[in-house]
Write a structure and sequence with these properties.
Elements (H helix, E strand, L loop, with lengths): L3 E6 L8 H6 L4 E5 L4 E6 L5 H14 L6 E5 L8 H9 L5 E3 H11 L1 H14 L2 H12 L4 H8 L3 H15 L6 H11 L2
Length: 186
């Protein structure tokens, strides 16, 4: 089963609640990743909607709002922890998802954008990047993109699934494909 990560902005008022945050799920590990944040790793995929509801309740109990960031198990293939923390600094307190952080970073931080491109070029072979660009050019139509690439539609689907499993970014959804398009379009 996949692991899932949650980064919690470290605040004095939130630290005593961390075991309660993670404790509602079975297997978890809490790790201090910096003076500003704590990483909670779950051994199973969790329902993020539950966390959003709990977060709203916490805000009423805690005087100082904080940030939560959900990351897929393979997010660190795209961004380092320190880069994630830099991206989080510029955002207001709320619950964030990986794609939101990536879109914000790509549009606002040139240096981090190139860091992401560098990491993705190590993870994705050129044919997978070409596949993404053709899918975007085909307005997310898998059949048209497969024809442009001279491959079978099932091969196209396999490549898209492979990209998702390597990066945690799902190109089958508009937001995911937009991230790749903004990164690799020349």
């Amino acid at each position: 089963m996949e692991t899932m990560h949650l980064i919690v902005q470290k605040k004095p008022t939130i630290e005593p609640l961390l075991p309660l945050i993670a404790g509602s799920f079975q297997d978890y590990k809490i790790t201090k990743i910096s003076s500003q944040a704590i990483l909670i790793t779950f051994s199973q995929t969790i329902d993020t909607n539950d966390f959003e509801d709990v977060y709203s309740l916490w805000l009423s109990d805690i005087e100082e709002p904080f940030k939560l960031l959900f990351l897929p198990y393979n997010a660190f293939n795209v961004l380092d922890v320190k880069d994630i923390l830099i991206a989080l600094e510029a955002l207001s307190p709320k619950v964030y998802y990986f794609n939101e952080i990536l879109l914000h970073t790509i549009q606002s931080d040139y240096k981090l954008k190139h860091s992401i491109i560098k990491k993705l070029n190590k993870v994705l072979i050129p044919s997978l990047i070409t596949t993404l660009l053709r899918l975007a050019e085909a307005d997310m139509n898998m059949s048209i993109a497969a024809k442009k690439l001279y491959i079978h539609r099932n091969t196209m689907l396999y490549r898209i699934d492979q990209i998702h499993s390597l990066t945690g970014i799902d190109p089958k959804h508009f937001e995911g494909l937009l991230i790749f398009y903004l990164l690799f379009k020349r």
